[in-house]
Amino acid sequence: MALNLLIVDDHLIIRRGLARILEEDPRVALVHEAADAPSALRALRQARYDAMVLDVALGERDGLDVLKTVRADYPALGVVMLSVYPETQFAVRALRTGAHAYLNKGCDPDELLAALANAAAGKMYVTPAVAELLARQLDRKDDAAPHKHLSEREFQVFLKLA
Questions:
Q1: How many angstroms separate the CA atoms of 27 and 48, rounded?
Q2: Do 9 and 18 touch, CB atoms closer than 8 A?
Q3: In what order do the strands lie in the sheet containing 51-55?
Q4: How far apart are CA 6 and CA 53, in angstroms?
Q5: Contact 101/126 with Cβ under 8 angstroms?
Q6: Mind listing the pLDDT tens digit for each residue in 65-88?
């Protein structure tokens, strides 16, 4: 099955580089790009995609906020969050919000393709670093730090205040 993919990143050089890498793979049929949330949502309305690469930081609108919209409107779409932020900062939140994978932008292209293929098939892709974070979440008691119980928006406001 050849994949139709959408790359959503606010940095042109990153989008173009990812598109080039993905287009070289025989499993990929089509790659479209979007620079921000409105153009990404417009692209999703205009074409059918198997999976998307979604940056956490999208300028005006947070990628995790976009993920919530995507989950509500396109529940079958595979979503791989790709970010410069370390896994400890956003991975668990991204997976809880509905991402199929969370990868750091320093990952190997083969790992990104594997994550996209899994996401397109409705499967999760978890790196060893993210698996460790998830295991720690299971081991944690409900006496977690108060900020761990905040909603995504509350956490964003908390970060701005800090």
A1: 16
A2: yes
A3: 28-34, 3-8, 51-55, 78-83, 101-104
A4: 6
A5: yes
A6: 999 999 999 999 999 999 998 787
